[in-house]
Amino acid sequence: EPEVTQTPSHQVTQMGQEVILRCVPISNHLYFYWYRQILGQKVEFLVSFYNNEISEKSEIFDDQFSVERPDGSNFTLKIRSTKLEDSAMYFCASRAPPSGASYEQYFGPGTRLTVT
Amino acid sequence: GQNIDQPTEMTATEGAIVQINCTYQTSGFNGLFWYQQHAGEAPTFLSYNVLDGLEEKGRFSSFLSRSKGYSYLLLKELQMKDSASYLCAPGYGAGSYQLTFGKGTKLSVIP
């Protein structure tokens, strides 16, 4: 069964450093998302991406964040200058074009980012 | 915000039935998802309701009332592996359909 993959599974970085989190969505999917979950808290939407551009973003997704689809398979989230409060699990998700009533998003296993 | 409200924790016995309720803001609402999340893992899709009524899928069923901004997830014949958080996620907005998750209901299934 096709699945969303993410690398690395765990990333430790120092405050102020740049990090790039990588995702490979399911191959025929067209909508891509990043969510984050701070330990013990709810899953929060960051950004959605369609047709090579951002379609929606939340207040969390400020100028420190950017997303890119550099080729036909990868979807990346970059944090330019990490802060302690960026420590969280980051989930990538993707979904196919709407088919009937199907809007299911498939989540990757997540990257745990620890900023020290 | 979307004011998603669901109970924080619930406990039920193996083999029993449990109902997890969720209320949400109806403005701009498209449809409602339920996801399951085991500790330390990614959310996994359980159900999606766009029309009023009950959708049944094996041991899990989900109900939606659009006018009331209300949904519930019904889990039957509970198993120990059903111990997890259950996330109510209304979808808003046209196009990207990003999910807004509630804080989740942590369900503990006991023998």
Structural description of this entry:
The complex is a heterodimer of chains A (116) and B (111). Chain A has 116 residues and is an all-beta fold. In chain A, 0% of the residues lie in helices and 49% in strands. In chain A, the strands form two sheets. In chain A, strands 2, 4, 5, 6, 9, 10 and 11 form a seven-stranded mixed β-sheet that branches. Chain A has a four-stranded antiparallel β-sheet with strand order 1-3-8-7, with no helix packed on it. In chain A, strand 7 and strand 8 form a beta hairpin. Chain A starts with a strand and ends with a strand. The model of chain A has no long low-confidence stretch (mean pLDDT 93). Chain B is an all-beta fold and 111 residues long. In chain B, strands 1-9-8-3-4 form a five-stranded mixed β-sheet, with no helix packed on it. A four-stranded antiparallel β-sheet of chain B has the order 2-7-6-5, with no helix packed on it. In chain B, a hairpin with a 6-residue loop joins strand 3 and strand 4. At the A-B interface, strand 4, strand 5 and strand 10 of A face strand 3 and strand 4 of B.
Instruction: Indicate the mean pLDDT of chain A.
Output: 93
How much helicity do the residues of chain B have?
A: under 10%
Biggest β-sheet of chain A: count, sense, barrel?
A: 7 strands, mixed
Question: What's the β-strand tally of chain A?
Answer: 11
Tally the beta strands of chain B. Answer: 9
Low-pLDDT windows of residues of chain B = none
> Strand-and-helix sequence of chain B, N→C?
EEEEEEEEE
**Biggest interface, which chains?**
A-B, 24 and 24 residues
Spans of chain A with pLDDT under 50 lasting ≥5 residues?
none
Strand content of chain A: over 45%
Assess the beta-strand content of chain B as a share of residues.
Answer: over 45%
Order of helices and strands of chain A: EEEEEEEEEEE
The termini of chain A sit apart by: 37 Å
Strand order of the largest sheet of chain B: 1-9-8-3-4
